[in-house]
Amino acid sequence: MSRIVRGIEHGLIGCEACGLVLERPAQGSECPRCGTAVHARRPQSLSRSWAFLVAAMILYVPANLLPVLHSTKLFESWSDTILSGVVALWEDGAYDLAIIVFTASIVVPLLKMGALLLLLLEVQRGGRQLPRERALLYRVLEYIGHWSMLDVFAVALLVTLVHFGSLANVEPDSGIVAFGAVVVLTMLATMSFDPRLNWDPPRRRATPLPAAPAVNPDAAKDPLSP
Amino acid sequence: MPRPAIKVRPELAICEHCDSVHRRLPLERGEAADCKVCGATLYRRPMLDLDAMLALAAAALIVFVLANAAPLVTMESGGTTTRGWLLTLVATTWTSGVGAVSAIVIGTVFLFPLAQITLYFYVLLACRLKLPAPQFVNAMHWLRRLRPWSMVQVFLIGTLVSIIKMSHLASVQPEPGLWAFGVLTILLTALGTFELRELWVLREEAQQA
Ligand SMILES: [Zn+2]
Ligand SMILES: [Zn+2]
Questions:
Q1: CA–CA distance, B24 with A214 (Å, rounded to integer)
Q2: Which numeric CATH code is attached to A44-200?
Q3: Whether A97 and B161 lie within 8 Å, measured CB to CB
Q4: Which of A137, A155, A164 to mutate to test the interface with B (most CBs of B within 10 A)?
């Protein structure tokens, strides 16, 4: 297996915003093409990601325990949580819908939080196992992030329709707000995580970029020459 | 002391997912270069050219207007027919005491997609006509930031789920606004395949020419 050439080992940084490759920029200097401050790794990536993830995990509890809908019909009144909504769909025989809502509202958020937890713990522990699989996991997280918002939209329309139809009185409840916040927070946690950390050996994470050479930058060994 | 200019290496590409360095290769139309270390896409050459992308952005703008002007659903119950637009959704959720839901809907389905389409139009036009666009850099930054928060496709599926859920309670019909959202989803996905990083390169080439 050929050795992998890493940017950080040669003072090469790819601008996060526009992709331009810069050679030995001072830490925090601006990309000449787009003006973004360039960093070898996102600053405070791990602590920010942890903060968003912990907040999401805490809010996940009320998001599932608090009712998302409160309905009144004649003299009856009942509350639905996300899970009881799925159960009701299943009992009504709407299996396909029950599966869609169950996946988007329960499986995806749990998987996302579990996967982020795994990525963060592994990076922090300095683990170097299966970097390719962890990289793939991160890309999946990025891709599925917003699909959990499905239930929020479904509740919004349900409330609107019932409101007009005077079939029954359905009011959205605080559970849906907590749920929306969980989705936003897990998305923020994913964005804060720097996937390049998955590949870094534990030691290098603390040390800054190699300093710019004092004499002649062109004398620096070309990273791509064998 | 003047700051030394930063040396750039446009012939290289660095994978944003694993930090491995690659030499840029010329691509055919519609091809993408994958990172051989982690498998992420490094860069791609878009299938469509600038003119086609501009046409897509213009179409998206028109469809966006239609999707919001036409009702999404109608519901018949007790002899009365009621219609729901996207903005009625925003208003009802607001008055029902869940302001956060209302804010999520207006942001992710109305404001962000609208901003996205307009910004795409601006940057594509600037590249195509080689205009001196003073806000090009800002527009590109906003396009990148907005991308994950524009959720038209999720809204579409959420709405369909809700309509089917309701259909056993009352007669609920999807209306043209919903189909327009379907078309908008396709157009936005097509626009999204145009990698922003390629636009930076195109812009630089346009300025040098
Ligand atoms: Zn840049
Ligand atoms: Zn890679």
A1: 29
A2: 1.20.140
A3: yes
A4: A164
Q: How far is A158 from chain B (nearest CA, A)?
A: 6
How many CB pairs below 8 Å do chains A and B form together?
225
Which amino acid is present at A105?
S
Of the partner residues B23, B93, B157, the one whose CB lies closest to the CB of residue A159? B93
Cβ separation B161–A100 shorter than 8 A = yes
Q: What is the ipTM of this complex?
A: 0.89
Q: Which residue of B has its CA nearest to A155?
A: B162
Of A142, A165, A171, the CB nearest to B77: A165
Query: What are the domain boundaries of chain A?
Result: 1-40, 44-200
Output the furthest CA–CA distance in chain A (Å, rounded).
85
pLDDT of residue B3: 54
Name the pTM for this structure.
Answer: 0.87
The two most distant CA atoms of chain B are separated, in Å, by 80
Q: How many CB atoms lie within 10 A of CB A211?
A: 10
The mean-pLDDT minimum among A109-118, B22-31, B183-192 falls in B22-31
Domain edges within chain B: 1-45, 48-208
Closest by Cα among A11, A9, A12 to A21: A12
The pair of three-digit structure tokens given for residue A184, joined into one six-digit string:
């936003």
Residue in chain B nearest A19 by alpha carbon: B197
Percentage of chain B surpassing pLDDT 90? Answer: 44
- Over the range A142-177, which residues count as b (16 or more CB within 10 Å of their CB) and which as e? bebbbbbbbbbbbbbbbbbbbbbbebeebbbbbbbb
**Residue A204 in this model has a pLDDT that exceeds 60:** no
A196 and B16 within 8 Å at the Cβ level: the answer is yes
Cβ-Cβ contacts under 8 Å, B163 against chain A? 157
pLDDT above 90 (res A10): no
Taking the Cβ of residue B137 and every Cβ of chain A, the question of whether any pair is shorter than 8 Å is answered with yes
Query: What is the least distance, in Å, from the CA of A127 to any CA of chain B?
Result: 15
Amino acid letter at A7? G
At A200, the pLDDT band (50, 70, 90 cuts) reads confident
Q: What angle do CA B111, B117, B118 make, to 5 degrees?
A: 85
pLDDT attached to residue A168: 62
Residue type, A169: N
Asked if B1 reaches chain A (Cβ–Cβ under 8 Å), the answer is no
Q: B168, A92 in Cβ contact below 8 A?
A: yes
Cβ within 8 Å, pair A34-B137:
yes
Going from the C-alpha of B64 to that of each of A31, B50, B51, the distances in angstroms are: 35, 21, 20
